[in-house]
Amino acid sequence: MRTREVGTTGHQVGAVGLGCMGMSWAYAQSSRDDAESAEVLRQAVDAGVTFLDTSDVYGAGHNELLLGEALAGRRDEIFLATKAGLVVTDMQTRAIARNGSPEHLRAAIDASLKRLGTDHIDLWYLHRIDDQVPLVESWGAMAEAVQAGKVRYLGLSEVTVAQCTAAATVHPVTAVQSELSLWTRDALGQPSGAAGSEPVVTTMSIGGAPESGDVVGWCAANGAAFVPFSPLGRGFLTGAIDATTELESTDLRAGNPRFTPEARAANARIVDAVRSVADRHGATPAQVAIAWTLAQGPHVIPIPGTRRLRHLTDNIGAADLDLTEADLAELDNAPKPVGTRY
After folding, report:
1. Which fold would CATH assign to domain 3-233+297-322?
2. 102-116 and 62-70 are packed helices; what angle lies between their axes, rounded to 10 degrees?
3. Percent of the chain with pLDDT over 70
4. Is residue 105 within a helix (H) or strand (E), and if so which, with residue range?
5. Which are the catalytic amino acids?
6. 39, 133, 135, 293: least surrounded by Cβ within 10 Å?
7. What is the residue extent of each domain of the chain?
8. Closest by alpha carbon to 228, among 126, 295, 162, 303?
9. 215-234: b (≥16 Cβ within 10 Å) or e
10. pLDDT at 98 > cutoff 60
11. How far apart are CA 11 and CA 122, in angstroms?
12. Beta bridge partners of 53
């Protein structure tokens, strides 16, 4: 697989990474299969997918345990990213809250290291900024972990340009992770969703920064990687979900404004635009959607998530798909989505 550098660290990783959240959290729980997820992880690394992304909040630690066990003995083959700053307040409803206190973060890194079975994390993100704790305090506590050798680099998730700049005065920002896809372009300074709509924060997803500014551009200018999560629009951009698809109550998409049957019917126009480009290249819609994120800059490293081997192979293929200027113009002009992202 083609590779990309993580910021200015000198670390080369596969151009397409792997988001591991869905193996433990957020999507239909009836189809969760830890054995298959572990095999996906191992085969991903075999195929050159070396940037693996998890968090201590995914399954209240389950996801980190899964990675630690599945990749035991292969630590030196991967660039491992995890996060802290969100906590599960009710496992049954999967309600979560922010906690960016220095005390929590100091305890969180030790717990993550233990679950992952490693003595260091390559990239440690502040999962969300806690409105009750000054960013410089949270970031300063995380910088302590770098100084202690527990972490190599620090990142931010779902932040604004102003917050990136503020953090960088305390400690370098190596990466920023935010949602970016053909139907969610906020991180490019292009707010998505219906005109006049307001973001909705649910217990399933702690929302980020709806008016972030051009975070992708900030990363390019400041030597940081930009890491898009949900580059496939939570699966919608693959074309596998339509207005008739039944979503389990345990699936976060069941309560998402873009996944109501009416919104899905309207948003099918976006998938049509993706499929048109895919057909010209003999590619899949998933590959085109991921390739579009890759085309936003050489510092962009998307992390599509999957727990299925067939989807892993499909996603990896995006690394070798070169979209033309005409393709990109066509995709840039795809219809805007109906419904906010949360």
Report:
1. TIM Barrel (3.20.20)
2. 30
3. 93
4. helix 102-116
5. 58
6. 39
7. 3-233+297-322
8. 303
9. bbbbbbebebbbbbbbbbbb
10. yes
11. 10
12. 19, 81
Looking up tokens 């300063």, which residue turns up?
140
Phi, psi of 34 (to 5 degrees): -60, -35
Q: What is the phi/psi pair of residue 165, to 5°? A: -65, -40
- CA nearest neighbour of 127 among 282, 270, 21: 21
Mean per-residue pLDDT, 23-47:
88
User: Could you give the CA distance from residue 78 to residue 6 in angstroms, rounded to a whole number?
Assistant: 12
In 3D space, the residue among 275, 274, 253 whose CA is nearest the CA of residue 264 turns out to be 253
Give the SS3 label for residue 199: coil
What number of other Cβ atoms are within 10 A of residue 166's Cβ?
18
Number of residues that this document lists for the chain = 342
On whether the CB atoms of residues 48 and 81 are closer than 8 A, the answer is no
Strand pairing report for 86-90 and 95-98: antiparallel
Cα 128 to Cα 146: distance, rounded to the nearest angstrom: 19
Tokens of 57: 């909040």
SS3 state at 22? helix
Is the distance from CB of 44 to CB of 37 less than 8 angstroms? no
Tokens 């998890």 — which residue? Answer: 54
Residue pointed to by tokens 């953090």: 167
Residues 6 or more apart from 329 whose CB is under 8 A from it? none
Distance (Å, whole) CA 337 – CA 259: 11
CA angle 240, 245, 251 (to 5 degrees): 95
Going by C-beta distance under 8 Å and a sequence separation of 6 or more, which residues neighbour residue 241? 235, 259, 264
Please say whether the beta carbons of 87 and 133 come within 8 A.
no
Q: In the beta sheet, which residues pair with residue 5?
A: 12
**DSSP one-letter code for 300:** B
pLDDT in tens, 109-155: 999 999 999 999 999 999 999 999 999 999 999 999 999 999 999 99
The separation between the first and the last C-alpha atoms of the chain, rounded to the nearest angstrom, is 33
**Taking Cα atoms as reference points, which of 18, 64, 21, 19 lies closest to residue 45?**
18
